[in-house]
């Protein structure tokens, strides 16, 4: 027998591992990684932790919700972050219901702390008292779409908990089905979550390594899995290292296990193996970023994995990069903010290319100076989102509505994956914002878009809120722009156009008056008659009779 050597690589990904979110009542559910086996138990024996600095809220949730039929045998309560951390460290909590705004540590800070722990990860439910853009952005960082408000409706809350229980059931079933698979055992071993019986199943006499392989967002994940599986099945060798196992970790990340019979701790060969693996995937149309370690013995795999995980969490990297753990030096967490005054000037001048060029140079300089950590990338992103929000608000533009789309969500989700991904996100924000700023500078553009939409959607909901969302402005400002351009309020114009359309239908069709009212957007027949008479000085039936006789 001999001690095995291991070459370790990791592929980078975003920090969050959000799987799903469920919205109900006043809740935002954030789903985190599966509970490790040592914390598993029947889903009918779950525990919930309620956290709020308001003891009345905690008491109300504890007493008004019938937890036992939902599968919760124990309800824990805490009134601050410290109390919550103690319970989470000692108990296998399945569900955490936490207020966001708490004086001794927010719910978001509790969640961030929880993510750094190596033990189980429960579901999180956030409660909040009022809408705040900063909270929304921080929630979005965990791949959520939004956050909602108190007060909590007990019935809606119960429905949400039921959905959470269903998710816990599904995760438990998947863990049970896959707990004995080799790929699962390898993942449990390198993360330090394995029992001795499963560890004994691993081939310690060969060279093996768990890696994280992060595929670029442009790559189809099904294709990634098929290609890596083929390399594994065909026993491909990279600089004396053979790919002997792989498994999906999370999101776009894949674990890799390389093996070599050589006992020589040759760092160069490990680096060469990673280069050859990366190049092979590139030839097959797959772009990945890799981190690689010097060869290590089997017993040091968990320790090496932890170091690479730390590197992936902290180091800002370039897309498609290959980095060695041997060359990694933790960087000083010194955040040097960009010149936001200059950026505001460029935004005011509606010069998106100049803003993007500024950030490209800023990222290059801070990276070269060793100041561009992932934490600093996150700070930069949050600061810039806030700056854009203020700039848009100054022009009466709703940033929340403007960026409420899949493109924003996807770009933000992967914005910390690489320096290029962050620049992509910044470029999207700038171009989208400046395009709309330029558009609304011409009031006639906004008014004409509203007019055309109204004319083509007379039968739809044409409330001020709907029309304001169409142009991403607040309702009052939207109404003022329209009236300045056409001399009519939005309401008056809508009534005018609906009645004109109703006049045409009364004369030229045999539709019932009730049907005509519905066609032009009135579900209340009496109100339609009132509006029609107000404009034409006669009720619809009389109007039809007189005008059809003339026809």
Description:
Pfam families: HTH_18, Response_reg. Residues 448-546 form the HTH araC/xylS-type domain. One of its GO terms (molecular function) is DNA-binding transcription factor activity. This is Response regulator. This protein is an alpha/beta fold and 551 residues long. Helix content is 52%, strand content 11%. The protein has 23 helices and 13 strands. The chain has helices at residues 55-64, 81-90, 107-116, 133-141, 154-178, 182-190, 196-199, 221-233, 267-283, 301-314, 340-348, 352-368, 374-394, 399-402, 406-413, 419-441, 443-456, 464-471, 475-486, 490-508, 513-519, 525-536, 540-550, and strands at residues 8-10, 23-24, 27-30, 46-51, 72-78, 95-99, 123-127, 213-215, 237-238, 241-250, 253-259, 288-293, 322-324. The strands form two sheets. Strands 1, 8, 9, 10, 11, 12 and 13 form a seven-stranded mixed beta sheet that branches. The protein has a six-stranded mixed beta sheet with strand order 2-3-7-6-4-5, with helices on both faces. The longest helix has 25 residues, at 154-178. It is globular, with a radius of gyration of 30 Å.
């Amino acid at each position: 027998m001999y001690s095995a050597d291991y070459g370790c690589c990791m592929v980078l990904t975003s920090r969050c591992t959000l799987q799903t979110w469920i919205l109900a009542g006043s809740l935002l559910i954030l789903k985190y990684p599966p509970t490790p086996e040592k914390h598993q138990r029947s889903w009918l024996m779950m525990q919930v932790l309620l956290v709020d600095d308001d003891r009345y809220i905690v008491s109300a949730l504890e007493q008004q919700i019938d937890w036992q039929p939902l599968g919760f045998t124990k309800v824990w309560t805490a009134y601050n972050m410290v109390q919550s951390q103690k319970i989470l460290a000692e108990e296998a909590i399945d569900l955490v219901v936490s207020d966001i705004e708490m004086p001794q540590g927010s719910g978001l800070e509790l969640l961030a702390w929880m993510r750094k722990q190596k033990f189980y990860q429960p579901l999180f439910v956030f409660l909040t008292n009022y809408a705040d853009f900063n909270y929304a952005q921080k929630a979005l960082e965990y791949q959520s779409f939004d956050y909602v408000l108190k007060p909590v409706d007990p019935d809606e809350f119960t429905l949400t908990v039921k959905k959470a229980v269903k998710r816990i059931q599904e995760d438990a079933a998947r863990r049970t089905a896959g707990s004995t698979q080799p790929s699962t055992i390898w993942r449990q071993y390198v993360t330090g979550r394995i029992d001795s019986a499963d560890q004994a199943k691993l081939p310690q006499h060969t060279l093996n390594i768990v890696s994280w392989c992060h595929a670029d967002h442009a790559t189809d994940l099904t294709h990634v899995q098929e290609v890596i599986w083929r390399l594994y099945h065909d026993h491909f060798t990279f600089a004396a290292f053979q790919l002997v196992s792989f498994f999906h970790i999370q999101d776009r990340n894949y674990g890799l296990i390389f093996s070599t019979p050589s006992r020589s701790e040759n760092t160069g060969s490990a680096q060469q193996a990673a280069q050859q693996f990366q190049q092979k995937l590139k030839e097959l149309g797959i772009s990945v970023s890799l981190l690689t370690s010097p060869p290590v013995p089997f017993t040091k795999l968990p320790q090496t994995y932890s170091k690479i995980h730390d590197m992936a969490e902290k180091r800002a990297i370039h897309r498609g990069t290959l980095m060695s753990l041997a060359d990694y030096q933790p960087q000083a967490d010194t955040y040097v903010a960009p010149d936001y005054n200059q950026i505001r000037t460029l935004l005011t001048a509606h010069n998106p290319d100049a803003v993007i060029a500024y950030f490209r140079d800023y990222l290059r300089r801070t990276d070269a100076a060793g100041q561009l950590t992932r934490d600093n990338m996150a700070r930069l992103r949050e600061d810039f989102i806030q700056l854009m929000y203020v700039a848009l608000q100054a022009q009466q533009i709703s940033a929340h509505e403007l960026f409420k789309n899949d493109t924003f969500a996807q770009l933000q989700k992967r914005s910390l994956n690489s320096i290029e991904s962050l620049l992509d996100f910044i470029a999207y924000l700038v171009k989208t914002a400046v395009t709309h700023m330029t558009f609304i500078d011409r009031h006639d553009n906004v008014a004409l878009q509203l007019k055309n939409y109204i004319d083509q959607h007379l039968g739809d909901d044409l409330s001020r809120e709907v029309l304001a969302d169409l142009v991403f402005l607040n309702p009052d400002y939207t109404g003022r722009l329209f009236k300045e351009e056409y001399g009519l309020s939005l309401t008056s114009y809508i009534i005018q156009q609906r009645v004109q359309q109703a006049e045409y239908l009364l004369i030229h069709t045999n539709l019932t008056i009730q049907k005509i009212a519905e066609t032009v957007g009135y579900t209340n027949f009496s109100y339609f008659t009132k509006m029609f008479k107000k404009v034409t000085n006669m009720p619809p039936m009389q109007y039809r009779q007189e005008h059809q006789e003339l026809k």
